[in-house]
Amino acid sequence: MNTKVPKIQLTILLASIAYFSTASAGLSALYGGLISLANTVLVNRHINKQENDVAISAQTGVRMMIISVVMRMAMIVSLTLIGKFILGLNADALIISLVLGICGFLMDKVLGE
Prior knowledge:
Elements: H1 7-21, H2 26-52, H3 58-86, H4 91-112
Helix pairs in contact: 1-2, 1-4, 2-3, 2-4
């Protein structure tokens, strides 16, 4: 089971939150960072599920991947819209920290393996 802590992602998110806190948008950056961490958890859950169930067919694996991608995209879009329109958060800080968090996740994956 892959339980590595995403160190690069967390470092980038903390720097992003610190930067946007100086512009009174730290909460927005934190929210965007939490969305990217939720995405990371879902990706790791999907990967672990695929690795643990070696008896699945290729067609089932592709179907699981498609469901995972659609589910994560729907989650990211809906949480971003909730943050912007319902919670009234700063869209710039939210989206920038979300994107930086996802980039950090990718760096963790590439450099960690």
